[in-house]
Specification:
heterodimer, A: 319 residues, Immunoglobulin-like, five-stranded mixed sheet, 42% helix, B: 601 residues, mainly alpha, Cytochrome C Oxidase, Chain A, two-stranded antiparallel sheet, 4 strands
Chain lengths: 319, 601
């Protein structure tokens, strides 16, 4: 009977492992494609942890299943008669440690501690790059002005405010001209609402491939969370605070001239995998699940500015 | 030094039914009362979970039985009902199931018995701690029917969704959500009552364990169950006051117009506030300062009991007894400095996040040491696969998964991707369902004979185990995949986004497995109640265990022991020695020969 139980444990754990092995190859069952400057480092850390935890998962579960298989009691309750262990032969080099309880306790305390400390300290720089406000200037660079937008999260939509096309053009061209008045104008964006800004386009965030993005994230009702899964961005929006979020998109997903998302630049076709959602990731009421927007990354500066001009006309026409 | 009075059972007049079984001060009766109420709330919480799962799997379908509940919504669950379902599922399971099972039921039942005392230090306070749960039961059930609907801002109840209120005098509706009006107020009051009950209990347990151990029961001869209950009680005593304060602050924000958590300038539709200066983050800090230690409150007693159960049925001494105690203490201590890991993406200063990250990653260490020690206990064992043992082994196996998945979310950059996704839901259910709840099942199968003098059916126990084990993994393991793919928590309809839509099939698999898992718990409930009346009658020590409760009759009598026990050895004297008939020695056994599982410390 004991062997049945150990096999039940073993088969179930094997099934779990199998699911993780298979999932990356099933369409839609794994991480969305990472298309930001942050995604490489974050995904690498994820895979590193997956490898380490996967190793220890297999090791400990195999030991457990093995012990249950081998040490089950006999029919009359006496200890089982043990055949010589093949595994013990394999472990001959470390028998000295394994047979001394003190040594083995030291080993299984120090080795995991070292691995955990390594995991802890190796990741601080990634976190700092993504979130520490003091790192923001290094990230964007002194001589660049990012694509700056203001996102105001509301029950239940994302409202995005852009600079007007002419302002945005001066921001994007700052690197060549380095005009200090433009720099000041950029710094005022979060504080002022100029009359020619493009306001409150709901549910759509447009940015430019290869150019840094700065989002001023705010809300005036409840806590929401800006989640751009493909960019590996998640930041809660807090009432009473404006929080900056920054990244650089590394791929585009909208076609010149039509501005529909989902365009795959490699296959030159429209493709669901290139529809990049903006989702709300903090419960904000009954409409939380519907607070969905779309992220458009333009391939070229001209295309991006052409869209912004079009959007500005549209927004002004409605007023 | 502990002294127990050895006076004979007091000659009081025979108590009536009410004083004996309802308003009892006997710790065993109180423990059983907690057990029964927790079983009922387990069914309530489970039903709510099934409602959540059904909506997730078939978001646009009319639901067969529920059709009549929602005639105005086309027979489909409204979003606010869904939000209430998961909020109340978590609230019920945490505050009315797991914590009362572990600390209320088993803490009460086991502590005096296992340390050789006649009852708790404060029996009347003990009775009050149970009866304080009843206002909580009434309030939490009433909240379902509150005006505006039951609480629906999550069990985490973050302001401003949960706590925005109209100006004083204009009623208790909330502009943020209809459910955050009266329903939320009932919830806050219910949790206040639960907190008071737990604080009373924790004071009692700490005092009893320190002061009332039998002669010879030194601290290092206490079973792990008691060490775990002791340290858990300390956790409760220090953490609960902070939750109590936070709940009162939110209650005041909602009723008398304070603004602890409400900043100014909030705008809801046409309505706006201009008085504020509160901080929503303050609630999160106060709430998680309790709720993180709370999760250790919900696992440590189970770990302690599992240690005792595994050594009993493996017929081996517990490996690394002192390391186990140190690990429990380490988990509890570290547990007080990691609360910010729930707030990495919250807008809290990310530098603070780094500090919390280091402590959080380190908390995996004592947990890992405990897992290795359980494996070490099974090594060269003589393992008896009873229902209790199977659930205890499953605890170890599945806690490995729950613990390892925690490392992903401890890593702040990875948390950016998995925060508020089903990866977190997978982790919490591995540690709460397949660890805590399986530990509770193990404890019930194990101590049922001592509570009621009868055995539960081993056959049906094994059926319960086998199906629950497979089904639970079918429900919760795929949630890791959902989380990696980005599926968010608390969403009733995942077809609204392109990245979640492909996961519908996997969600349906999970829901069907959950329906199986839920149904099979009925086998347990029927086994439990049937065995109360018709289970096989048993003797003092059906499991050949060593601890003190097995020296007395089953069920244990009022006053627990005929004479005060005297303790001569630690609880883990197990192990077959050549030429000796017995492979264990009771803690009160003075004459057992050396060599059986001798204590090495």
């Amino acid at each position: 009977m004991g062997k049945f139980w150990s096999l039940l444990f073993g088969a179930t754990m094997a099934g779990c492992f199998g699911l993780f092995a298979v999932a990356p190859f099933v369409d839609g069952w794994w991480m969305p494609e990472g298309v930001s400057s942050h995604s490489d480092r974050i995904d690498f850390l994820f895979y590193a942890i997956l490898g380490i935890t996967g190793f220890f998962f297999v090791l400990t579960e195999a030991i457990l299943v093995g012990f249950l298989y081998r040490y089950g009691t006999t029919a009359d309750g006496t200890p089982p008669k043990l055949a010589p262990s093949k595994v013990a032969n394999l472990l001959k080099p470390i028998t000295k440690v394994l047979n001394d309880p003190h040594k083995i306790e030291l080993a299984w305390t120090i080795i995991p501690a070292a691995i955990l400390l390594l995991i802890a300290f190796s990741q601080v720089s990634i976190w700092a790059e993504v979130k520490y406000q003091s790192r923001y200037t290094d990230f964007v660079g002194k001589d660049t002005i990012p694509v700056v937008v203001e996102i105001s999260a509301r029950q239940f939509e994302w409202r995005v405010r852009y600079p007007s096309k002419s302002r945005m053009e001066s921001f994007l061209n700052y690197t060549e001209k380095k005009d200090p008045t433009v720099k000041k104008d950029f710094e005022s964006f979060a504080k002022l609402t100029k009359f020619d800004d493009v306001k409150n386009l709901p549910q759509a965030l447009h940015v430019l491939k290869g150019h840094s993005v700065l989002i001023h994230l705010g809300t005036q009702d409840v806590i929401h969370s800006l989640n751009l899964p493909h960019m590996r961005i998640k930041q809660d929006a807090l009432p009473g605070k404006i929080i900056p979020v920054w990244f650089i998109p590394t791929k585009s997903n909208t076609q010149k001239g039509t501005w529909i998302d989902g365009f795959n630049p490699d296959t030159k076709k429209f493709d669901d995998h290139h529809i990049w959602d903006i989702a709300c990731a903090e419960l904000c009421g009954w409409g939380h699940y519907r607070m969905v927007g779309r992220l458009f990354v333009h391939e070229t500066k001209e295309d991006f500015l052409a869209w912004l001009e079009h959007a500005e006309k549209d927004a002004n026409a409605k007023n | 030094m502990s002294v127990s009075h050895s006076h004979e059972a007091h000659a009081h007049p025979e108590l009536g039914f009410l004083r004996k079984y309802v308003f009892s001060t006997d710790h065993k009766i109180i423990g059983i009362q907690f057990l029964f109420s927790s079983v009922i709330f387990l069914l309530v919480g489970g039903a709510l979970a099934l409602l959540v799962r059904i909506q997730l799997a078939w978001p646009h379908a009319e639901i067969p039985i529920l059709r009549d509940w929602f005639p105005d919504n086309g027979g489909r669950m409204p979003e606010s009902f869904y939000n209430m379902a998961f909020s109340m599922h978590a609230s019920a399971m945490i505050f009315f199931v797991i914590i009362p099972f572990l600390t209320g039921a088993f803490g009460n039942f086991l502590i005096p018995l296992m340390i050789g005392a006649r009852d708790m230090a404060f029996p009347a306070l003990n009775m009050m701690s149970y009866w304080f749960m009843w206002p909580a039961f009434v309030l939490i059930m009433a909240s379902f029917f509150a005006e505006g609907g039951g609480p629906a801002s999550g069990w985490t109840a973050y302001p401003t969704l949960s706590s925005t209120a109209l100006p004083t005098g204009q009623g208790y509706q909330s502009p943020a959500a209809p459910n955050s009006g009266h329903g939320q107020i009932y919830w806050l009051c219910a949790l206040l009552c639960v907190g008071v009950s737990s604080m009373m209990g924790s004071v009692n347990y700490i005092t009893t364990i320190i002061n009332m151990r039998a002669p010879g029961m030194t601290l290092y001869r206490m079973p792990m169950s008691i060490w775990a209950m002791f340290i858990t009680a300390i956790l409760q005593a220090f953490a609960l006051p902070v939750l109590t304060v936070a709940l009162i602050m939110q209650l005041l924000d909602k009723t008398i117009g304070t603004n602890f958590f409400l900043p100014d300038g909030l705008i809801f539709g046409n309505w706006s506030t201009n008085v504020g200066s509160g901080q929503p983050l303050l609630w999160q800090h106060l709430f998680w300062f309790y709720s993180h230690p709370a999760v250790y409150i919900m696992i440590l007693p189970a770990m302690g009991m599992v240690s005792d159960i595994i050594s009993t049925f493996a017929r081996r001494p517990l490996f690394g007894y002192r390391a186990m105690i140190l690990s429990v203490a380490g988990i509890a201590g570290l547990g007080f400095i990691v609360w910010g890991h729930h707030m990495f993406q919250s807008g809290m200063d990310p530098r603070l996040g780094t500090a919390f990250m280091v402590a959080t990653v380190m908390i995996a260490l004592p947990s890992a040491v405990k897992v290795f020690n359980w494996l070490g206990t099974c090594y060269k064992g003589n393992i008896r696969f009873t229902s209790a043992m199977l659930f205890a082994l499953a605890f170890v196996s599945l806690f490995i998964i729950g613990g390892l998945s925690g490392i992903f979310m401890a890593a702040t950059p990875v948390d950016i991707a998995i925060h508020d996704t089903y990866f977190i839901v997978a982790h919490i259910h591995y540690v709460l369902f397949t660890s805590s709840l399986f530990g509770i099942f193990a404890a019930i199968y194990y101590w049922f004979p001592k509570m009621f003098g009868r055995m539960m059916s081993e056959f049906w126990g094994k059926v319960h185990f086998a199906i629950s084990f497979v089904a639970a993994n079918c429900v919760f393991f795929p949630m890791h995949i959902l989380g990696v793919a980005g599926q968010r928590r608390r969403i009733p309809d995942i077809t609204a986004t392109a990245f979640e839509r492909p996961l519908l099939g996997l969600n349906q698999f999970i829901t069907i497995s959950a329906l199986v898992l839920g149904t099979v718990q009925l086998i347990f409930v029927i086994n439990f109640f049937f065995s109360l009346f018709w289970g096989k009658v048993c003797g003092r020590n059906p499991w050949d265990s060593n601890t003190l409760e097995w020296t007395t009759t089953s069920p244990a009598p009022h006053g627990n022991f005929e004479t005060t026990p005297v303790v001569y050895r630690w609880p883990y004297d197990y192990g077959q020695v050549e030429g000796q008939a017995e492979d264990n020695a009771l803690q009160t056994d003075k004459t057992a020969p050396p060599g059986i599982g001798e204590q090495h410390h």
